[in-house]
Each structure stands twice: as structure tokens, then as C-alpha cells.
Batch of 4 targets.
Target 1
Amino acid sequence: MAHDMQRVRESDGRMLASSGAGSTEVGRSGAMLRVSGLRKSYGEIEALRGVDLEVAAGEIVALLGPNGAGKTTLVSIVAGLRRADAGVVEVDGLDARRRSAEVRRRIGLAPQDTGIYPVVSVRRNLLLFGELAGLGRAELRRRIDEVAEALDIGELLDRQAGKLSGGQKRRVHTAIALLHRPALLLLDEATTGADVETRGHILELVRQLAAEGSAVLYSTHYLAEVEALGSAVAILDHGQVIARGDVGDLIGAHAVPVVELAFDGEVPAISSHGGATVEGNRLRLPTRDPAATLVEVVPQVPPGVLSSVEIIRPNLEAVYLALTGRRYDEADREGAREEATERKGRSVVAK
Ligand SMILES: Nc1ncnc2c1ncn2[C@@H]1O[C@H](COP(=O)(O)OP(=O)(O)OP(=O)(O)O)[C@@H](O)[C@H]1O
Ligand SMILES: [Mg+2]
């Protein structure tokens, strides 16, 4: 995957739309999705500033990045829902703009926002989207049964789609995306707000589809989920891909443990070995030896001002911190903590 990282960096973002020869090139390199030099602005806001990204057939890539990083914009352009200002999207070697009908049939999308017709039933939604994806009647019925069982939405099929709960809608979005076993599956925060069981179902389906050879690009804020899935990662920040690789490789390359001290009020003056940063009322000390750093630093803290001490181990969150200089925002960290608790086997299952 280090190879992939290199490729992303080397891409000059000025690749031209593929001709026949270009298509062969893509086919040979095994990329199901190839995005290069993608730009998109909304008025003054530059949402994408030259995004280069490849996802191979059979590969799962988690798309990470803070709110507003451009994830939904990227996914929407790939799916043909929005138009880029510049750059190229190729799916299975086909230029997405010129061959949009063929490309669309290869893609399954579970959008972050509403992706269903609210006034008709779930079953009707599945039928409509399945037909759009080109499935024949008999196959469509069979697939609806399969995805309904896999995502446990059998009992929801005859309910009005617009009246489902948030988590139930997520499952329906995912079901629609998976119906035609797309060669490229795009999930935009498919697991956000879903209960633990649903997240498990969705991730299992993602794994299965990838094992059958589909490429998967999924955005998420649950870092622990990405670690559990062991997928590759692309970090999008301010409209650019700033890192791409396997979780393990990125952790090895970028992450150092960080000792974080939080204070009631201002961070007091404390001397330490280099690299300390202050954000708000938190002091962060990157260190290869957290215990030694604590021994060095804690005696310098005036009494009564320290509110918490945390050691951030080299994990995906530390990679994120090292690359962006920020931690995931509070809401995201809640999600990550919940995951960590689940993995320790404590019961936090949402009712
Ligand atoms: N339709 C739009 N009109 C104007 N600005 C937009 C529109 N859609 C997105 N933006 C802006 O573009 C930037 C990227 O937004 P985008 O939705 O792609 O981010 P995101 O990474 O998906 O964020 P989140 O994690 O919150 O879903 C943001 O600054 C956002 O406010
Ligand atoms: Mg989004």
C-alpha cells in the first residue's frame, strides 16, 4: 500500500480524460475508481482542491476527514450527482462524464442525506432503484429478499420510507446501494447514527462485497471501526488527500504516542522536551516514552489545576493528529470511545 501512497503523491492532477488507450491503462493497473485533479468550488468555498485517489477492485478504502473536508462532495461527484469544475473520474476505466450511463450502472451509492422517495414504501423504493440499476424483475425480487435479510429490514419493507427512524433509513440506503452488487460501492457515513448491530451488518456486507471483487469507498467518523475493518485509509483535509495507505503503515509512519494534559483554565508554563503544543486548555506532548514524560512533567503542575491526563496511543487518531494538528472533533471522539467500549465487551447497545 506504500506503493499506492507514492502513486497518489506523484499524480500531477492534470491527467486528461481517458481515450481508448487510457481505458486499457486503467484496466491494467486494476483501479476500479481513479480520481485525478478533482476540483470543486461552491462560490467562494473551495470544497475540493485537486483530489487524486485510486481504489482497486476488491479494496476497501475508508475516507476520513473532519466536517467540511469535502467527503460528500467527492462521493457525489463520483456518483454523478454533482459536476466537478476540473479533473477526471474514471470508473472501471470509463470516463464518468462521457460514459455516465454505463458508469452509473457500476456504482451503488448510499448517500449521507436522504436518498429515498419518502412517500412510498421501502419495497417500492428498492424496486425503483433496482430497476434504475438495470436489474430484471425476477432477479430484483430475489435480491430484495437477500439484502432485506442481510440488513434485517424484512419487517420494514411495507412501511412508508419517509416515516422510518434515522437508523432504519440508513439500512434502507445501504440496501439500495447493494442491490445490484455494484462494482464500485460508495457509502457516505452509512454507519453514522446506526446502532451497534446495524453497523455490524453493514460492515459485514461491505467485507463480502469487497471479497467478491468490488471496490468500496466509504466515509466514516468512527476511527475504531476503520481499525477493526483493517481497511486502507484516505484522509481528506481541506479538499485534498493528505494521506493514503493501510492503517498499520500509516500508524508506523506518522504516529507517536501523545501525552495530553487538560487543565481547569489556562495551561500553566511547563518545560518539557520539544514538540509540545497547546490547544485551548490542553497541553500535548508527543513522546516515544509516555511514562517518562509524565514523570518529568506532572511534578511541574501547580496544585489543583489539572483536570485530566490521557495517553493517546499510536492509533489512527494519533495519525490524524500528527497529520492535521487536530484531534477528531468531540462528537467523533464520542463515537470512537463508544466503539472502544463495545470492543471491551461492555454493554452499550442502543435500544
Ligand atoms: N451545496 C452546497 N453549497 C454550498 N456549499 C457547500 C455545498 N455542499 C457543501 N458545501 C461546502 O463545501 C465544503 C465541503 O462539504 P462536504 O459536504 O463535502 O464535507 P464533508 O467532508 O462531507 O463533511 P461532513 O463530515 O460534515 O459530512 C463545506 O465547506 C461545505 O459547507
Ligand atoms: Mg459529508
Target 2
Amino acid sequence: MATHLQVAIPEHNLLIVGPGVLGRLVAQNWRQEYPGCQVFGQTVTTDHHHELTKLAINPSLEWTKASHKFPYVIFCAPPYQSSDYLAHLRLAASCWNGEGSLLFTSSSAPYDCNDNGFCDEDSPVVPIGRSPRTDVLLKAEKIVLEFGGSVLRLSGLYISFSEFNKGAHVYWLEKGIVESRPDHILNLIHYEDAASLSVAILKKKFRGRIFLGCDNHPLSRQEIMDLVNKSGKFSKKFEKFTGTDDPLGKRLNNSRTRQELGWEPKYTSFAHFLETI
Ligand SMILES: NC(=O)c1ccc[n+]([C@@H]2O[C@H](COP(=O)([O-])OP(=O)(O)OC[C@H]3O[C@@H](n4cnc5c(N)ncnc54)[C@H](OP(=O)(O)O)[C@@H]3O)[C@@H](O)[C@H]2O)c1
């Protein structure tokens, strides 16, 4: 009878804080890179522990018993579920043994631009105090950078795959009429690309760096929903945006991130993604 030799490779073990849609894709990519490694998942509830176990992600809730340290830690939990996001971030950072990488998936929201202008990795961010939403992200980034970790600022994530159907277009399609202005420019990245980019950063063992995740094809809200309507891939039709005076957006470009990592997205634009579904 064949026997299976399970070789654990501790130096590539990965802790995923927030093994949601992105975290699970990171786990999958990581295991392809390092077969035999162990992947751990830190959550806020036990709601998805069964699913995580089936995906070979060892789930845990036990921050207080966080005596175990990991060579690779990725924090990819969104802020809205946490009683104290910054405290959780500090705990996550203290679970890193300082050897491989620590990465925080932040957002491109803090870039200080709301006139549909151009931004890249080095564009200025809003000052602390302007909005609670950007404050929490900037403070979280600061914690990670001080620990020697790196930050990946992600643009709008989307996916359409089996049970996962997420993204701004899904939300707007559900509503049909949305009270936001149509000409606001948005930036997108497919969840699979955000995962491959995260893994590319983790593998390089950077210290204290900020990267940007986007597909370099900014689109207005109207352009996104026109593409959705014209694609014929959805049963519903989007009606309209009705806003007139809410802020505009920005046009992101991450050429520096791509060049440094030798990374390119699989879904080069939202239009390309629609062709694939
Ligand atoms: N969605 C976007 O457009 C967008 C844009 C820019 C950046 N991001 C960032 O991208 C990352 C991934 O987002 P996602 O959509 O993959 O998230 P998601 O699917 O909503 O992930 C939720 C997971 O995080 C866990 N979680 C939440 N708060 C936690 C905490 N404080 N400590 C530990 N676990 C926690 C949840 O635990 P339970 O299983 O207990 O519920 C769940 O497993 C996040 O950092 C988010 O801020 C998202």
C-alpha cells in the first residue's frame, strides 16, 4: 500500500489574518509555490472554520495564545468586522518572527485625489484627521511599517467565481438605481490578481515598502455599468446613477510595482474579465 510522506516546511509556513475571499486565494497560491508548507487562518468568529479546514487552512480564534510565531504573515481582514482593528494588527505583527515577510493589504482610498487625477505609489495621502475611514488605514499601515512589514494598497476588488460574486458592479446591479455621480473614476483589480500580487510581495521579503494593486485601466462608474449591461452576462440590467455633486475619484497607475516585482495581472482590465465569464 502506498504511504504518503507529509513533509512540513516550517520556514514557509504562513499565517493569514482574515482568510476571506482574498486570504483563501493567497493560501491557494502560496501552497502552489511551497507544497508541504502549513497555512493558518486567524478569524473573528468560528463561522467559517469548517470551510477553512476543508481548504487545509488551520483556523484559529486564539489571539491570546498567540505565542506561536510565523515566518510569513499576511493581514487581509477588512476593518469593518473588528472591535479594535489596530490592536488586531499589532497582534498579527507580533506573530511574525521577522524572517520571511509581513504584509498588510490596505486600500488605495488614502491617496489624496478627488478630481479624477493621476496617482501612483508615491502620490501624497490624505492627512490624519480628515476621515475616520482613511485614518484607520493610515494608522494600520504605520504599525506594519514600524514592525518592518510592507503594505499593499489595493484598488476595488471584484470576482465572479462559483459562490463568490463580489465587487462594486455586483452591488450596483442589485440596486439598479444608485445615488452617486456617474463620472467618478474607479480603479479595479481582480481578487485573483490581488492574491498573486500579494504572494509576489511576500516572496521577496521586502522591509517597510508600499506597493499599489490596480489593473491600470481606470473606468468611470458609468463605463463600468455600460460594460456590464452590454456584456449580456448578467440577468439584471443596471438603470442609472443619479448623483451630481459627490466627489470625483482618481486614476491609479502601478507601473513601479509591476516593474519591481515582475508582476502583471491575469485580468488586464474589467472589460477583459467580462469576456472571460
Ligand atoms: N473589497 C474591496 O474592494 C477592497 C478594496 C481595497 C482593499 N481591500 C482590502 O482587501 C482585503 C481583503 O478583503 P476581502 O474582501 O477578502 O475580505 P473578506 O472576504 O470580507 O474577509 C473576511 C475575513 O476576515 C476575517 N476577519 C475580519 N476581521 C478580522 C480581524 N480583526 N481579525 C481576524 N480576522 C478578521 C473574517 O473572519 P470570520 O470568518 O470570523 O468572519 C473573514 O475570515 C482587506 O484587507 C480589505 O480591507 C478591499
Target 3
Amino acid sequence: MSVTAPSHGEPLIRGDNSMRYRPFGKTGLQVSALSFGCMRFSEDQDLNTALVSKAIDCGVNYFETTRYYINGSCQHKTAPGLAGKAAGVIVSGKEGINPNQTAYLFLREIERQLDILKLTHFKFFQVGWFSWAMMPHLLKRGGVLDGIREAVDRGLVQHIGFTGHDSPENFIKCIETGLFDSITVPYNMINRSYEPTIKRAGELGVGVVAMCPVAGGVLAWDSDKLKDAVGMDMPQAAMALRFVLANPDVSTACSGMNTMEQLDRNIATARDFDPAAGGFETMCEGLDRLRAELGDTFCTACRYCMPCPQGIDIPRHMQAHRNWRCFGLDAWAREELKRIPAEQSLDNCDRCGACEEKCPGRLGVREMLEELAGLRNGGKK
Ligand code: SF4
Ligand code: SF4
């Protein structure tokens, strides 16, 4: 679907001294390599405003928002920094889709989010929490697509993307419909599950917004294993961002930032990284080798093992195990185990084995929980 409205045709801002730009799929837009995820703002509104304002001054031209982040305050916290600077900047909004969603409700939500952000239109609007199973609710008469079409006709929206947590295969089916200009998915060194989807998006000219390039802060923790695997020696968060930007099919790496240090570091990384230097295949081979060391004991976070009769959050523990054993994030894993509430902790395991019977990968969950207990108690194994 081409949804480019004839109005609002101003070019996006550029700051070539401080930022690099990439084609945003087939939209004709040049998006900044670093984009700003507005879901981690703090209570310090002066800082939030300064962050958005400085990011724009440095050439960041994509800001990801929705009314629902940060207990409903995300767009309120974003708007002051955009004041007087929003022309030439993509501010994306997002509304969810569900069986009860209608064209009318979707359109009203677009208007509501524009009102909060004090914008006249969205250059991008995302269909949020989308999945292949939601396609009928998008396409039905009087459904979400009808609402989007009216928004486009009225000049409230120019381009449409989607985001969600369906399987990579289903998301490939979604982008192959040709209905969307972009896809937003999590992607980083330790979560490459959407890599095939990103590749297909690149082939189809669909823009890719890579969320969580630093894995929600996990990759800010040092790991010699990861550095060796990708052949880089630099602060880990910078390395993580470089990996995402090295993927030629990624349009922009969307990082949730709430400190000036993070913003400055990410801008410097995005500015200094020359995608022409290549190296993506070599990095992937190094990461594949790490994963191969674990063999079949790689939790895919499918959650089929849940619920645990003892209340244990099994996937969270398995993620900690994976990040420790596969990627060498020992210190992060120890801290993560301390953060898990007592009622969801591995200490409650009675070794019933129910999880292992339900796990498609037949992971040895009981043994892995014991290994984690050893790590938490000071050992490495
Ligand atoms: S073996 Fe432990 S983790 Fe698995 S289902 Fe039983 S109590 Fe839960
Ligand atoms: S079923 Fe297995 S692979 Fe899926 S989340 Fe549970 S442990 Fe991980």
C-alpha cells in the first residue's frame, strides 16, 4: 500500500557532521542510523526535553513513541523536546490491534496521539502488537486498514509500519502482503531470531527499525567472549550498536535512551561506524560459533514450559543461563538472578520435570537451574 500523502512533503533533517543516514525502505526517506526509542524516559522532564532536543540537533530524525509506554506518559514526555523542531523529523506513533478494534477507534487514537505530541501528522504510524493472526482484523470491513486509509486521506498519516512479537516466519508473511512500509523488531547480538525477517524486508524494500540494539541494557555488561566472537575491542554497548548497524538491511537502530552519556555515546558510534567497512558476515560467523558451543541447549523463549507448578519464571532463568553460558555475560546473569522475585526463583524447584516434558527443545531445565544456583552462589559452573 502506498500511503504517501501529497502534503507534508518536507525533507527530513540531516546532520551530516554528526550522523549517518540510510534509505528507509522504498519510502524515499533517509533515516538516521541511530533513532530514539522514547520508552525509557525518567521523571526528570528537563533532561527528557534536553535529550530529544539535542538528538534532533545532532541529526537524529526518527523518534519511536506510543501513548502506552511509561504508564501512559511517553508522548507527554517526548512532546516538549519536539517543540519547534518536529518539521523534518519522523515521530512514529503506535496503536494496537485486537479483534474489537475498529476503523473509528483506530482513527480516534491517531488523532489523540497527534494531540498529545502537538503534531499535525505522523510521517509513520505503527500497527502495534501485530501478528499474522491479526490480519483479518486489519483487513475486515470497518477494520484497522479502513481507519488508516481515512487517516491517510486526511493527511494525518503518511507511512504505515507494524511491530509485534510473532514468529519470524509469520512476520515474513506479513511483509510479503505489501501492506507495510516498515517493520519494527528486536534485534541484537544475543537475539538474532528476526534476522531472516530483516533479510526478507531488505529484499522487498521494507524499512527495518531494529529495537533493543543493546538488549535492554544487557549488552552494556562486558563479555570477553562476545568481543572475541565479533573481533572488536571497544566498550560493549558501542560494539552492540555497531553489530546492528553492520547489518545492511537494518534502516535504523532504535535505542531507548535516558541519559546524556548514552545519547552522546550512541551518536558517536553511529557517526563513526562506516557501513562500507563491512564485516557483518564475519561477526555473524563468530556469534554462530558461540551458539554452536551450546548445541541444543539454547532456549528460544517460546514459553511452552509455563506455567511452572512452583511459580518459577523458567524462561527468565533460561535466558540468564543462555547469556551466561553462551555469551559470557556472567556478571549480568548474577545480577539478573538477584532481581528475580523470590516467588519466581529457582529455589522453589522441586525437580518435578514437567517443564522438560513440555519443552520442544527438550532442554535439561532442572540441571540448568542447578548450574544457575551455582553461579549465583559464587561459582562459574
Ligand atoms: S522441574 Fe522445577 S522448574 Fe520445571 S516445572 Fe518442575 S518445579 Fe518448575
Ligand atoms: S519450553 Fe524450553 S525453549 Fe521454550 S521457554 Fe521453556 S525452556 Fe525455553
Target 4
Amino acid sequence: MNIEAGKAINTDVEETMNEEPSRTPSSTPPPAPRREDIDREDRSTVGDYTVADPRMTARQVNVYYGDKHAIHDVSMDIGRNEVVSMIGPSGCGKSTFLRCLNRMNDTIDGCRVSGEITLDGQDIYAKGLDVVPLRAQVGMVFQKPNPFPKSIYDNIAYGPRIHGLVTTKAEEDEVVEASLQRAGLWDEVKDRLAQPGTGLSGGQQQRLCIARTISVNPEVILMDEPCSALDPIATAKIEELIDELREQFSIGIVTHSMQQAARVSQRTAYFHLGDLIEIGPTDDIFTNPRHPLTEDYITGRFG
Ligand SMILES: Nc1ncnc2c1ncn2[C@@H]1O[C@H](COP(=O)(O)OP(=O)(O)O)[C@@H](O)[C@H]1O
Ligand SMILES: [Mg+2]
């Protein structure tokens, strides 16, 4: 099972072809452990990391930077129409894990990923898989808005053009307008589409980046602390947008703000030193954490 990024994960196709998919939920889940029964040194994941209708699945994912073991055996699903937030102290591996989900770690020298990650049942680390369309299907928005040094219009039109999604100018116009509408930016920029994207405010630039991600028809949108560089009003707009986007996309968001995780996500995953410590419905994680390490973090004992 353990392979390097870019190599085939499952070569035993014949063997597994006739098996039940392993993610089929069992009829009776094991009873949840009580908090007092969990050893605080135990780093195995508490909570059900599966969902009934997953869009992405990660199983026993490990990530190394050279000799450094940054992610240990992390398994979790991202379901349809849900926002999953990933929280935890700085350096616990949230960004590293997120980058596994669209193979962004491939671009980092010395970074090695093992385990299995699927999108709609397809192994995204399969041999020969083209990462360019994968990164359109699983788009990413970063902490610092990073518009291209191009016009607002071209920031959006560029992706659909290179992915061959548009052929005529009319189609291009349509995708540009629809993507900006979807990102809640159209009314603010429709009269200045030829101006540089970098001239927008920080919050507008971030919505431009979200529009750019949407323009190539993703299934999943990953966001790595998308509001960290924004003021509270711009942050509120992005949070509202995330909730609307959930109707169409699956969203994985890393945030250092527990309030934000509580506001935008349906499920929350708590990471600690490279381990996924606990995952579950957001309300449960914040009101009734089961692992003592989760409790320490959400009650502000560290982080
Ligand atoms: N490009 C890299 N090269 C080497 N080590 C890295 C790299 N990126 C992250 N790390 C290390 O991996 C661990 C997890 O980092 P990261 O995923 O950035 O955490 P988080 O996003 O939770 O703050 C940290 O110890 C960090 O120093
Ligand atoms: Mg990070």
C-alpha cells in the first residue's frame, strides 16, 4: 500500500475488483468511547471519519519531508455538500494534509506521500494520472490572495481557456460572469473587468481567487486559512460565500479560528502534531469533545 507520490497505489486490481468497497458503512457502529476512557497519549483518531456519501476519501495517509514524519496515518472523508474544517495548533500538519488532496505536495522537493486518496472513487495518486485536470477538480484557495498579474476578466477566463472549457468569446464572457456572480463579486467589478485583479481590495481579491477556482468546474474546493489576511467585514463575506458554495461543492477549510470553524463547517477535524486526534460533527467537537487533547485546544489551554 505504501508508495511514493505519483506511483500506483493499488496494483492488485483483480484481487480487489470483486470486493465490497471498504467504505460501506457497517450497520452498527461501535459505541463511542467515553472521555474518561481515552488516554491522553493515545493518538488514534476518535470519532467516525467516514460519511455515507463521500466525494473524497483519504486512508492511512502519511507524509514525510525528508526524514521528518509530518502526517501520521490520517484517514477521513469529505462528503458532498459539506464543509469540513481542519483545526489545530500551528505546525500540526493541516496545510500538509490539505495539499495531499490535490497533490500540491508533489511540487515540494523531498516531500513523500503514502496511503490512498480517492476522488469519486478514483485513486488520485494513480500512475499516469494528470495532475492538471485534478487540480481543477480539486481547486485550492490560499491564505494570501494570489490573483494573476492580469485583468479581472483574464484572471477568470484563463483557466477555462487552458482547460478547453470555452471556445468562443461569448462562452468566455458567460463563464466569467457566472463565476464572478457565484463568488459574490460581479456587481462590484462588472464595470471594471479590464482593470488589474491586483488593484482590488484584499477581500475582493480573495473572492476573485474563489471565482477563478469555480470557473473550471471543481467538485471540491480546498481553502487554507482563506480569511487570515482579511478584515472582519471581508471575512464575514467569505464565510457567507462558503455556506452558499456548499450547495454545489464539497469544501475543506483549514482555519486557525475556532469561531470560524464553528460558523462555517458541518464537521470538524482536530489535528495535533501530525495526528488526526478527533473528527465529528462541528457542534459535538466544540461542545462535547471526546479526546482530552481536543478539549485542551478548544478550551484555549494551548494553540
Ligand atoms: N516544505 C516543507 N519542508 C519541510 N518541512 C515542512 C514543509 N512544510 C511544512 N513542514 C513541516 O511539517 C509540519 C506541518 O506543517 P504544516 O502542514 O505547515 O502545519 P500547519 O498548516 O498545521 O501549521 C511542521 O513541522 C512544518 O515545519
Ligand atoms: Mg498551515
